Amino acid sequence: MDQTLPTAEDITAALRAGEVTSAEVTDEAIARIERDDKAINAICVPDFDRARAAARRADQARARGEDRPLLGVPVTVKECYDIAGMPTTWGMRQHRDYMPAEDAVQVSRLKAAGAVVLGKTNVPFGLQDIQSFNEIHGTTNNPWDHGRTSGGSSGGSAAALASGFGVLSIGSDLAGSLRTPAHFCGIYAHKPTLGLAATRGMVPPPGPALPVEHDLAVVGPMARSARDLSLLLDVMAGPDALTLGVAHDLALPPPRHEHLRDFRVLVLDEHPFIPTGSAVRAGVQRVTDALVDAGARVERHSPLLPDLTEGALLYTQLLFSGSVARFPVESYEQLRVRATGLSADDLSLDAARLRAMVFSHRDWIEANSRREVHRHGWRRLFGEFDAVVCPITPTPAFPHDHSPDPRERRIDIDGVEYPYFDQLVWAGVATMPGLPATAVPAGRSPEGLPVGVQLIGPMFEDRTPLRLAELLEHEIGGFRAPR
């Protein structure tokens, strides 16, 4: 596979210079998909005819003197976004024929910016896994090792980018669904501040596509370079025109610093609930060394850090209390009986997940109130630091595991097994308080698998971790395609 896949910035520059046409770039992307995707299975719903037509229109627009941020650039879209004329299933067989009538707001923004949509990328059933497989579209493989997962739930998008199937993609993140696939596939992704980018039209089928405000969940960009993340975030960011957009304009503050030497960074590689594997520790250390060598102020401990144990429990409660909202009454009653049988001394994450599934509204309000205390703690920490560097998951990409009951799955960390869903705690560090977090490549494991870290920044200061990602890309390198 080509080691020098172009970025969106590269392609845009070539299009503007007249060195290539969108039709040529699009045909090349389609040819690559048709040649290589049988082994990867990233593009679950191709849309090549409409993509070629959109590319021709982009070339005509450029010939008329038009220039938009993504004019003529080939992109992919996570399957969970509504696109008129294409099925939206979320990997659920009962909705395999559901066809939305209009585009999701983010798809509309992509098209308005001139992007050429190649098709949709694969997801897990209901977007509820750290892998991407379902009964409709099958399994997406990791481009670096086809026996391993590409991650979830934006695993199709991450695998597509690593394989050269388009230069940008849009995904979503509730439990690391942007960051984990980026880490597993060696690309970049950005989980925006909660509420920064409108989500209308990214809704379980059959809809309706209403401008609701989701708890924890965000939509965000994926790319092969840090600068491309910023380019795509500028297209995606902003309130929904049906709600806050009626009165609000977006004005993100600039990054806090322009040089690595000026950043104040807190580095974390230990979590109270789960160990960090040696390969991921090495990635964190590589980023730390680059920061220190550049003259940044780096600390490994701070009394201002909100308690990670309580934060993980709160995240677990908020995440899993929402996951059962559409469960049948019978299933809910079974969960309630199991939760009642838990020992009061059982403080494991498994127990927290089960208790959260049967939360009362009062329980949720209490957890939400404690979340606000944590958010204020993070505000205080970001008065002293500009960013936090930490793992995304404890390991590189793991082998496919399609055991029907995820509670029976295990994650192997340096030879010791832990409950499968415990690996979500690092994603929750940013997700629970709604902070922005940028996933960046940080080297490879001894087996040659990609390893990434996340750069967490202050709320609504997304440009700070994004700028830090750009500077680190320059210092330690960035995306490299699989061979």
UniProtKB/TrEMBL annotation:
Coiled coil: none annotated. The keyword Hydrolase applies. Keywords: Hydrolase. One of its GO terms (molecular function) is amidase activity. Its EC number is 3.5.1.4. The keyword Hydrolase applies. InterPro entries: Amidase_CS, Amidase_dom, AS_sf, FAAH2. Residues 24-464 form the Amidase domain. This is Amidase. It comes from Streptomyces lienomycini.
